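Trying the structure run again after the queue cleared.
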Amino acid sequence: MPFLFTCPLPAPVAPLPPPAVSLAPSPCRPATNALKVVGGRERASSAFVGEQGGKDPPTWSVAVCGPALFYYNEDFSDRLIEWLETLRAMGVAKVFLYETDVAPTLSQVLRHYEQDGLVSTLPYSYPPPYPNHPATRWIWRHLESENYFSQENVYFSDCVLRHMHEYRFIAHFDPDEVPVLPLHQTLPGLVAELLRTSSGKAYPAYNLQMINFYEDLPPVEEVRDLPPFLWVLRHTARLKEDPAFVTGHSKPIFDMDFARGVFSHAPVTCVGMCEAVKRVSPSLAYLGHFKGTCGEKCQDKDLLRTETAHLRYRDLVLQAVTSVKKKLQLV
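Done. Tokens:
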């Protein structure tokens, strides 16, 4: 299991940000490593939308920390392009991804979005004794999924801590997950509403409930004319009733004024109490999970409803995805 170490500085040098720290096996033992310290003490201008310094409260940017991509034997490029362009349409400022071994087309997509400025990637390998060959890693992921998913804590915490001074609000979404915003055009708009309605109370995270859009439900009439490479936009049917809130089936937008260590579904260590996580009502926003099968329970059409909130980005996403696929010759 991963661990999080903190490094309190001695009082005489506490105001000085160190350029690096070393991790030693015991006190006074020689250090054999030097870990660069990233970040600063002041929040960068990237944390804000537009100009600052006016009378109104700042509008905060939202960044996304995604997973360590592992699609080696699967061409996930269409889904990744649509995901990134949908997040862009929702006002996401930056997407941070970790990269293991991926298919050549996926690497091509990542390099395009790095040059575009939307995405930043870091190479990632799993620590011993876990495997890093893509074939054995695939087996390990399915046979020891608990160990596999526990390693997410390493790079999710690395991601939010590495970028906490660039962005105050950092969400964690996977490529098969897209926020659904019935009442807001953008994620920064949602965050502004959450802050406004919190009555001054500080929350380390705002959790969006996960609701499935099943793979085995066919497109409704309104979206049947969309090309098949648009997976999210062609899936609009979901169960009518909202499921009960479960932490393991929700995803957070972290407030990095308070969150310090995180896992996929909630903060772990905080400035203050991590228990004070805000559950966002699905009527305000939720996370569409575009995965899984519904089976027999979805045969009763009276149990289903059509969600149209994410269709407001239809033309924008269609044009952007088509343009990127043409540029990368993925058509």
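The chain has a mean pLDDT of 90. Worth checking whether this holds up in the mutant runs.
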